[in-house]
Amino acid sequence: MQKTIINATIINEGKRFTGGVVIENEKIKIVFEGQPDFQLDGEIIDAAGKWLLPGVIDDHVHFREPGATQKADIASESAAAVAGGVTSFMDMPNNTPRTTTVDLLEAKYARAAETSLANYSFYLGTDNDNLAEIKKIDPKKVCGVKIFMGSSTGNMIVDDEKKLAEIFDQSPVLIAAHCEDEHIINQNLQRLIALYGDNIMPAAHPTIRSEEACIRATAKAIELATKYHSRLHILHLSTAREVRNFPHEAHISAETCVHYLWFTDDDYIESGNFIKCNPAIKTFDDREALRKAVFSGEITVIGSDHAPHLLKEKQQPYLQSPSGLPTIQHTLPAMLELCQRNIFTPEIVVERMCHAPALLFRIHKRGFIREGYYADMTLVDPQSPYTVNTRNIRYKCGWSPFSGQQFHCAVTHTFVNGQLVYHDGNINTTHRGQRLQFD
User: Fold this and answer.
1) Would you say 78 and 394 are in contact if contact means Cβ atoms under 8 Å apart?
2) Do 208 and 192 touch, CB atoms closer than 8 A?
3) Same domain for 402 and 322?
4) 3-state secondary structure the chain
5) 355 near 300, Cβ under 8 Å?
6) Which of 216, 254, 308, 337 has the fewest Cβ atoms nearer than 10 Å?
7) Which pLDDT does position 14 carry in this prediction?
8) Among the listed residues 108, 93, 109, 110, the one whose alpha carbon sits nearest the alpha carbon of residue 145
9) Which stretches of the chain drop beneath a pLDDT of 50?
10) What is the pLDDT of residue 151?
11) Taking the complete model, does pTM exceed 0.90, yes or no?
């Protein structure tokens, strides 16, 4: 059965025009400007006043399954994803058990096939002993490997220099790197514990997980990728110096996340542990440098680093409170809110959140509104203000660092593989996403 979207403002590939899209089965059959000059069949969706965007591809999520499903699971967080216009996600391996074998990786894919509303891929984790598993990866079926350059949640640090070099030399897929130096972080932490004992405040987080910790680990990853010509993707850049030192190499790319573009260290006073994440949110100058790098294209991808924890966990004292923020439902609305403030444009947001991830990861026929591509799209009402609160938060953990924030742009429809999975607060729980394929 066909569906036709008409009268939409289509924002795609740097252009904006009024027109529509014909969806047939899973794919986009026709993209047209103005009014259709052919007979319309099937369902017609009048999108007058709305923006039609490609579905967001989130390259960086932690959906907590397996091992911590009291916080989140693939079903709950993929529902939050589609409510936020995200049609595809790539999930990280620091689960329990850690996803460091192909068998465990395939078990996650099997679970997603049963429960995920969005399309999905999963990173294989790395450690000092799993190079043989890494070399088994089929590059057409797996988005990449995740490596922790010195610091991690889930004890996945690769600290053997020889093994680290072998991974960069021999990985058949993109290497996504978390870059913070554990030695520097531990030195900073012990110094503050000596001064304050257990009474360290959340505002100390960027002092402990410092700029220098990020810069040293990022430099190490870039050095290895340069030596072995690895496909390296540095995750969640958080400092101005990392931006200034970033190489202009086609095989090395960078991501930042919406919270580094939104918050600064001044926000720890009010938000405390609710914006505690790794790497830490840093200064106003760091945020401004990241914004400029996103605008210019030096930072190519914006991810969510969606990482839920229970409210009671985040309410613990700083040393006991885990790092991580639930954000996937609000990443696109927050970025469009920054467009309202003239910091970005919707065209740039689409480029960094839809087109660039598709190109970087070589995703097969997704990330663009093009004929023959999968019909992964979202409709946004740019004049539909709402306030984030417990009634509209979809995360299993039930809270958001954006609680109380008013956004002016609301996601109204999300299509995954041609199926309408989200519409004005209602989720079609019968639909299932597909495993992403890579060219």
Assistant:
1) no
2) yes
3) no
4) CEEEEEEEEEEECCEEEEEEEEEECCEEEEEEECCCCCCCCCEEEECCCCEEEECEEEEEECCCCCCCCCCCCHHHHHHHHHHCCEEEEEECCCCCCCCCCHHHHHHHHHHHHHHCCCEEEECEECCCCCHHHHCCCCCCCCCCEEEEECCCCCCCECCCHHHHHHHHHHCCCCEEEEECCHHHHHHHHHHHHHHHCCCCCHHHHHHHCCHHHHHHHHHHHHHHHHHHCCCEEECCCCCHHHHHCCCCCCCEEEEEEHHHHHCCHHHHHHHHHHHCCCCCCCCHHHHHHHHHHHHHCCCCEEECCECCCCHHHHCCCCCCCCCCECCCCCHHHHHHHHHHCCCCCHHHHHHHHHHHHHHHCCECCCCCCCCCCECCEEEEECCCCEECCCCCCCCCCCCCCCCCCEECCEEEEEEECCEEEEECCEECCCCCCCECCEC
5) no
6) 216
7) 98
8) 93
9) 152-154
10) 54
11) yes
pLDDT, residue 157, reads 79
**Pair 23, 54: CB distance under 8 Å:** no
| Dist CA 335 CA 342 (whole Å) | 11
Angle at 176 between CA 143 and CA 251, to 5 degrees: 90
Residues pairing with 60 in the sheet:
none
Q: From 150, 89, 151, 95, select the one nearest 125 (Cα to Cα).
A: 95
Looking at the structure of the chain, the number of domains it has is 2
27, two tokens: 């794919």
Q: Please name the residue that has the structure tokens 């700029």.
A: 211
Residue 190, CA atoms < 13 Å, CB-side half-sphere: 6
Q: The tokens of 204 are what? A: 């100390």
Same structural domain, 154 and 212: yes
User: Which tokens belong to 161?
Assistant: 């220099």
Read off the CATH number of the domain in which 122 is found. 3.20.20.140
